[in-house]
Amino acid sequence: MKNIKKLTFLTLALLLSGCATEYQQKGLFSEGYSDMKLGDDIYLVEYQSNEYTSTSSNTKHALRRAAEISKMHGHRYFEVISKTDNSKTHTSPISIDTQTDATSQLDEMSEKSNISISGGDTVVEPGIALKIRLLKNKTNNSYDADAILGNF
Q1: N or C: which end of the chain has fewer CB atoms below 10 A?
Q2: How many domains are contained in the chain?
Q3: Which of the residues in the chain have pLDDT under 50?
């Protein structure tokens, strides 16, 4: 019974690992955010997701991290100075499956072959880099960190 529970848990964990990228810091084997201080109140925030995450969700994750950085440094607002699309695009590998059925009918050999080809699809992994400036006061182009964080 214990082995069945372990097998069920491992199967579920593997299935869930193929889902959209959750909000998290980028790790050795996972996508997520990374950030770096570039100067006084200037930061670079990057968010990289897997192919199961929408571009919109990826951008929201980057803005959330920008809001967290603003609050950590005592600022309520921030503005995006520049935005770069860091999406990765690649083609999934092509695989060919062949199945051959051989049957004998009255001393004749008959073969049927089935060939299926899969893959070759274009895969997009959304990525974005935001260069932000932390602000104490609101401007026309600023984001309110409290309002953004209130959505999560």
Answers
A1: N
A2: 1
A3: 9-17
DSSP 49-96: --TTS-HHHHHHHHHHHHHHHHHHTT-SEEEEEEEEE--EEEEPPPEE
pLDDT of amino acid 13: 44
CA distance 51 to 88: 9
CB 44 within 8 A of CB 130: yes
The 10s digit of each residue's pLDDT in 123-137 is 899 999 999 999 999
Token pair belonging to 6 = 């372990």
CB atoms within 10 A of CB 105: 7
At residue 40, what is the residue type?
Answer: D
Across the strands, what pairs with 105?
A: 108
In a domain, 125, yes or no: yes
Q: Give the separation between CA 42 and CA 45, rounded to whole angstroms.
A: 10
pTM greater than the 0.90 cutoff: no
Total residues belonging to the chain: 152
Position 40 scores a pLDDT of: 94
